[in-house]
Automatic annotation (TrEMBL):
Belongs to the trehalose phosphatase family. Residues 1-32 are annotated as: Disordered. This is Trehalose 6-phosphate phosphatase. Its cofactor is Mg(2+). SUPFAM superfamilies: HAD-like (SSF56784). Residues 8-17 have a biased composition (Basic and acidic residues). It comes from Halopiger xanaduensis (strain DSM 18323 / JCM 14033 / SH-6). Transmembrane segments: none annotated. It comes from the Archaea. Removes the phosphate from trehalose 6-phosphate to produce free trehalose.
Amino acid sequence: MDANGIIHRADADDRPRPRSMTTDDTVPDPLEEQLPAVRTALAEASRLLACLDFDGTLAPIVDEPDAAAPTPANEAAVETLADEPAVTTAVISGRALADVRERVDGPSIYAGNHGLELERRGSVAVHPVARKRATRIERACEALETVLEPIPNARIEDKRLTATVHVRSVPPAAEPVVERRTREIVDRFGGDELEISGGKQILEIEPSIPWGKGNALELIDAELPDDTVALYIGDDTTDESAFRAVEPDGFGVLVGDDEPSAASARVASPAEVASFLEWLGETGVELLAE
Ligand SMILES: [Mg+2]
């Protein structure tokens, strides 16, 4: 874990994986420098696919994950975009599907558990391997409740297909203990079938399958016209696969500071996300080719 409290993947599962698992990532440009390219891409497309992460993107990160809510500006901007006939709007979150869809209105598509569950046209598709491993997740969560019980403010969230151990409010001295005990439990109940990845002050327990937000985004995009321009905005390691899914023809927008990423543009905060979404809803949609 670094000075900002971010548990990096390399720390989380002792394999030396950098933030985005590729070495050619560069620091994204500030969004305003990429806006001319965004305008050109919109002018050449007939449709916009706008995919949005939730925590840290639409909603500021808060100490109590259950209290997270989109900023009012993001809430309004998402509804406006979702109402645009030429825009398909999706929220792709690490939260459970049922959780995230309660927190933001408007989109026609929601993906939960980092893309392992996808709701479109009123029906939910679940990754079949993840579904099979849900029992292991449940057992690991039960065991974690016991072994992490003595740790102040350690919180386990069972999201059925994945689980999150929240360490944001854990005393810093106890964080290595949380990580060690979590790893032991996941090894015991998961074997080769579960793995741990890191996020912002979380340990994410998930099935060890090569499926992420980028795969869900590709499923959504595959149903849209070929001349759709895709956009993804997100703030964390799990968003990198989605950035790679939209780049280089579309745009990945990292919410954060100047760290290397597969995204080509960056904004600083959920407030700047709202400004961009408002611009897309007012000006961006007008640029789309007829
Ligand atoms: Mg996020």
